Amino acid sequence: VQLVESGGGLVQPGGSLRLSCVVSGFTLSRYGVSWHRQAPGKERELVASIGRYGITTYADSVKGRFTISRDNAKNTVYLKMTSLKPDDTAVYYCKSNDFGAWGQGTQVTVSS
Fold this sequence. Notes:
By secondary structure, this protein is mostly beta strands. It is 0% helix and 49% strand. The chain is globular, with a radius of gyration of 13 Å.
């Protein structure tokens, strides 16, 4: 099982980014995947999750701003982030909910 994130970068407050997580070693349509983030000096926290049947959940801090989705044909899970704030600055990781595997992370920095 392997997960590889991409799409991070530097963005101004109010801007948008889309993160991608390409998975391998399991059939994406049959399992759940989640996005987590870890800011400097803070614990890693759950941001959003998408289950086997497409049910999504979000942390209160990102509801209405972030959207998790997946493309089973491309074995990819996305995290669309809009109205970004400096507090969203963190390393973002994707995780296989069922196998417990993590990606290497991608840095998102929100700053003017």
